[in-house]
Amino acid sequence: MKVQKIEKKKLGVGNSISFFFIACFMMIAGSIIGQLADAFLQSVFDVETNDALTETANSMSLPIQIIFFVIIAPIGEEFVFRKLLLDRTAKYGEGAAILFSGLTFSLFHGNIMQIFYAFGAGILLAYIYVKTGSYIRCVLLHGIINALFGVVAPAFFKYIDSGNQTMEAVATIAVCAEYLFALVGDRKSVV
To answer: What tens-digit pLDDT sequence spans the chain (191 residues)?
Structure first.
């Protein structure tokens, strides 16, 4: 099958920022779908799913998480799924290669909680690779995604869940903010 050559081009800062926000949306939407699928499997089929990666990550120290999830994993995964796999399947068409790269990337993650967002992220990263030919750009975006969703977000939620005092403080701030907005916005209606 003859592949139509697409001109490789540099993506500007605006496009890079757009891809970042698209990746964030895909991660959040895919995570929600994965959680729903996990809940469905557990409730309907009484199947206990295992998220070994999250369990392993929770047992690591923060510096080890950063080294593994932000540096090592993006370099290795992008090399395998974009550089090696996509380069070799591009002869079947760029669309097929992108889809195959995203699918194998998602299956590699190995659990229902991650398969959906890994598929979306894998397709996006494969698309960026095909359009730019830049392995480094994919590694950088992958590292940023992993840093935000694999290190920062879990640490933030762990901090929030660390005690009722934190939740009480957040609730108090929310009530105060609502009261102030009501005062400023409509002096007649106060919480």
So the answer is: 444 455 577 778 788 888 999 998 999 899 889 989 888 888 888 877 766 777 777 788 888 999 999 999 999 999 999 988 998 888 888 899 999 999 999 999 888 888 999 999 999 999 999 988 888 999 999 999 999 988 888 877 777 766 555 556 566 666 666 666 665 555 444 44
Q: Look up tokens 């009501």; give the residue.
A: 182
Contacts (Cβ under 8 Å, ≥6 apart) of 14? none
The letter for the amino acid at 41 is: L
Element (H, E) at 35: helix 13-44
Task: Report pTM.
Answer: 0.76
Contact in structure between 126 and 104 (CB atoms under 8 Å): no
Q: Give the closest residue to 18 by CA, choosing from 99, 109, 124, 114.
A: 124
CB-hemisphere CA count at 13 Å for 21?
5
For residue 149, give every residue at least 6 positions away whose Cβ sits within 8 Å of its Cβ, in sequence order, or none. Answer: 27, 31, 117
Contact present, 142 and 79 (Cβ < 8 Å) = no
Helices within 45-163 (DSSP H only): 52-59, 62-65, 73-78, 85-89, 94-109, 112-132, 135-146, 153-160
